[in-house]
Write a sequence for this structure.
């Protein structure tokens, strides 16, 4: 009888080759729409402050507070220098913060009230001597920038931490950018309109600033109370100046970070040149000075509506490709912009502005791209230090923006512009149109050439996140982020 107990199935002569191991796509950490909106509301603070300081502060202090333009410019320059130096320090400190509220949110909660108070005080200069008004302006800007730096850099870092999903990061950035544009409209046109409706002058601006401060307070408080921060272990090292410098240098050792910072800085420089020439071009070449508010509103609206489109493109084709297409879109539009002149009807100008605004909507993608760099850094270092990265990032972008404005200032008289002239020469108007459109387009072409070398594709990011997930399951890393809600 056959012995079934000892019978064996013959082994195949050769085993099939094992399939190559493919890192699984990490489980997505998605952020609900309400959570995105609560976080995005905090950007109202950033947008309102930016628009108010860029468009309202200078004419207010020259025409209402009666300070000379040179002194106003000097005060703003002092504030910009401190603002830039402040960012890397505050970001680095937030990386080392450990509270029951997380690392970033405590800065939002603690800074929002003194920040909005300083914003309101900025528009209440004393009626005194030139020296007193200048000293007041320098001090108010200094305090405002101190509190803003401790708010804004941790706020940006928090947004990068809300999700580990490649595409979701672009969606978070897009929602934040929508609130940013709303803040720009409030801090610019709405601020001027409210002040004028309240009678203008010191009292009008002072009362209008209270309304804006209230909106900023609501936005910052919403971001603090409405968001939940992923749990990340804080570093136990003693915070020293040497450690600060070491961490900031470490951010630049990553090739991927250097590439995206360099490319974005070049684009910001070109964009700043474009913005600096915009007023002169619309007034002298397009004949649209009386419709500037409408043009700006349409421009920002087109950019805002396009944010979901660029986020969807980033999810479908990858953030790197979507950003390159956005830049190419702008290159084409800016290169063709000199054909516009004062003979065009308003509808034609607005149609062109809509097309340009749609391209601008993709400029938010680098903030989503840089979030992927933080995963690469954690894989190499074992730590999450978004604050240090964003501190270096914001410093580089501010320096690039200042460089663009400086270039525009040097070019303006060289191009034949005559201050105060009732009518610029045709040659000067043509030159300004070239500086407003094709010149920034060259900066964007250079940006495309730089960012095309960015190594973190969607596939590579998934590989990195899979390695991090495996490391965390093994209890190896010094820090381990948990999904929201765990």
């Amino acid at each position: 009888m056959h012995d079934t107990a000892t019978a064996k199935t013959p082994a195949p002569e050769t085993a099939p080759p094992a399939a190559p191991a493919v890192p699984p796509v990490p489980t997505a950490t998605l952020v609900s729409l309400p959570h995105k909106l609560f976080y995005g509301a905090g950007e109202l603070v950033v947008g309102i402050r930016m628009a108010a300081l860029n468009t309202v502060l200078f004419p207010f202090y020259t025409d209402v507070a009666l300070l000379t333009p040179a002194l106003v410019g000097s005060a703003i320059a002092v504030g910009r220098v401190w603002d830039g130096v402040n960012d890397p320090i505050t970001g680095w400190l937030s990386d080392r913060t450990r509270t029951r509220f997380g690392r970033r949110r405590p800065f939002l909660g603690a800074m929002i009230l003194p920040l909005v108070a300083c914003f309101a005080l900025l528009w209440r200069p004393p009626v005194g001597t030139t020296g007193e008004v200048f000293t007041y302006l320098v001090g108010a800007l200094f305090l405002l920038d101190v509190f803003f730096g401790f708010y804004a850099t941790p706020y940006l870092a928090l947004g990068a931490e809300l999700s580990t999903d490649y595409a979701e990061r672009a969606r978070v950035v897009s929602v934040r950018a929508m609130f940013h544009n709303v803040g720009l409209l409030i801090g610019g046109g709405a601020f001027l309109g409210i002040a004028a409706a309240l009678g203008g002058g010191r009292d009008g601006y002072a009362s209008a600033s209270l309304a804006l401060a209230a909106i900023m307070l609501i936005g910052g408080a919403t971001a603090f109370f409405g968001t939940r921060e992923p749990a990340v272990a804080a570093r136990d090292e003693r915070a020293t100046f040497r450690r600060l410098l070491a961490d900031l240098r470490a951010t630049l050792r990553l090739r991927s970070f250097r590439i995206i910072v360099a490319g974005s800085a070049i684009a910001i420089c070109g964009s700043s040149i474009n913005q600096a020439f915009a007023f002169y071009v619309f007034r002298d070449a397009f004949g649209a000075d009386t419709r500037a508010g409408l043009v700006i509103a349409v421009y920002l609206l087109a950019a805002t509506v396009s944010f979901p489109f660029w986020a969807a493109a980033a999810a479908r084709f990858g953030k790197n490709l979507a950003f390159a297409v956005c830049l190419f879109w702008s290159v084409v539009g800016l290169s063709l912009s000199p054909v516009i002149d004062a003979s065009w009807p308003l509808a034609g100008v607005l149609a062109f502005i809509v097309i340009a605004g749609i391209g601008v909507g993709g400029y938010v993608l680098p903030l989503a791209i840089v979030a992927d760099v933080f995963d690469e850094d954690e894989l190499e270092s074992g730590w999450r230090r978004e604050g240090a990265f964003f501190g270096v990032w914001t410093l580089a972008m501010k320096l690039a923006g200042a460089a663009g404005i400086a270039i525009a200032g040097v070019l303006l008289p060289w191009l034949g512009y005559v201050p105060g002239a009732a009518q610029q020469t045709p040659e000067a108007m043509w030159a300004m149109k070239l500086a407003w459109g094709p010149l920034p387009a060259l900066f964007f072409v250079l940006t495309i050439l730089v960012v095309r070398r960015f190594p973190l594709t969607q596939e590579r990011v998934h590989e990195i996140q899979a390695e991090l997930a495996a490391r965390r399951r093994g209890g190896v890393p010094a820090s381990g982020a948990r999904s929201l809600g765990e």
In short: The radius of gyration is 26 Å. The CA atoms of residues 306 and 473 lie 39 Å apart. Residues 250-475 form a domain with the Growth Hormone; Chain: A; fold (CATH 1.20.1250.20).
